[in-house]
Amino acid sequence: MIYLASLRDCNSGLYLHPEISQQRGLNEADRAFRMCHERVFHNLLSTRLPEYVQQLGEYVRYTRGETVTMLKTWKSLQAYRATVPVGAQAASAELFCLTSASRWKS
Fold first, then answer.
1. pLDDT at 7
2. Sorting pLDDT into bands at 50, 70 and 90, what band is 102?
3. Cβ burial, residue 29 (10 Å; 0-12/13-18/19+)
4. Cα angle at 43 between 14 and 1, to 5 degrees?
5. Is there a contact between 10 and 19 (Cβ–Cβ < 8 Å)?
6. Burial (CB count <10 Å: 0-12, 13-18, 19+), residue 75
7. Which residues share a beta bridge with 15?
8. In this structure, are residues 24 and 72 in contact, taking their beta carbons and an 8 Å threshold?
9. Which long-range contacts (CB under 8 A, 24 or more apart) does 51-54 make?
């Protein structure tokens, strides 16, 4: 979900990929990445806590970051808020942010 959110332009809300946007066109690429981002977001909303924690652990291992530092940074910056899809319902976005904040506690 972090990667998908990183493809979203913060000014326009469009999902832009250097190759796919050129190959498929801006609108088609945006639509495909937007739908994928929304699906992943909704899947995470229904993920059970142990599985969610496991996914976070895999992400930390993938980035080769220091777990304690990453947890402190994410809690401080509330970076998980930037991963919410633009069109997400307010209640879903708030639920995600509340549960993400509590799940990031070490």
1. 96
2. low
3. buried
4. 40
5. no
6. middle
7. 8
8. no
9. 52/103, 53/103
Exposure letters 11-26 (e unless 16+ CB within 10 A, then b) = eeebbeeeebbeeeee
CA dist 87 and 14 (Å) reads 11
d(CA 22, CA 14): 14
Report which of 31, 3, 2, 1 is spatially closest to residue 15, judged by C-alpha positions.
31
Determine contact, residues 75/62, Cβ cutoff 8 Å.
Answer: no
Give, in order, the Cα–Cα distances in Å from 99 to each of 2, 5, 78, 84, 103.
16, 18, 12, 13, 6
Q: Which residue has the tokens 């332009």?
A: 9
> Has residue 18 got a pLDDT over 60?
yes
Q: Which two tokens stand for residue 91?
A: 């209640």
| Bridge partners for 8 per DSSP | 15
| Inter-residue contact 41 to 31 (CB < 8 Å) | no
